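Give me the fold.
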Amino acid sequence: MKAKLQAEDVRWDDVRVLLAVHRHKTLAAAAARLGLDTSTASRRLAALEAALGVQLFERTRTGLVPARAAERVLAAAEAMEAAHGRLTRDASELEATAEGVVRLSTAPGMASVFIAPMLTRLRKRHPRILIELDASVTARDLTRHEADLALRTVRSQGADLVTTRLLTARWVAATSSRLAHKLGTLGSWSDAPWISWDRDLASYAPTRWIATHAADADIALRTSDFASQLVAAATGLGLVLAPIPYLDRSSLVPVRFADALAKSAEGWPSDDLWLVGHRALRDVPRVSAVWTFLAEELRQPA
């Protein structure tokens, strides 16, 4: 007893051969129309006949003559062709007008200093994309779709993830130009007030550097909100450790220090910035559009 035919048994590539042969009468002409060689077209037609369990064409000396079965399935084949055409057109239009929600996860400082100011440019380029900005120190799990894209300073690992490094940034001691002028050249890191992280980030590399090299300094502010650190430093409250790209955005300048401090300054942290996405979503138009935009905006010049 013949097994019941399933839809997945019929391949579009084989149906294309049926339509071409019906229209052009010979395998050679059909193959040329589809950009195939004749033997490949013949194999595909035979595969379709085997899948359907019927003979679609009579082989004659003058060409192929449609059998009754071919006439019966012709309308369905043409409907399949039309559906394939709609799918291709719709996909092309979607790519041209990427739309929908993209959830972007990043640290609060990156979100407020860099991402938020560039969203107007993204909106102008892709007006139908809505960004959900998750500004949190908690790393969201992209494999569980807690976010679509993430900007991280530590490279994410996993077969389901794709990553690209956008830049490498060194941290420096900085403050307002007014306080930097007042302090002059520092002979000790404890000669100036500092802004540091709260106790929940005591193990954070910048926090440890300050605790080690400015142990006797006056701590003017402790906060784990990096954006608040930058604003406070810009008003002249104290020195802050910050990645170099943040300085111009926050009206900060590096402080001058004596040669005796150069060795300790070599211990300032250096961070990479990674753009991370889920492999299954990487080519989805809305996600791809935001990925490309972020890479263009944030990638460090070669």
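The longest helix spans residues 68-96.
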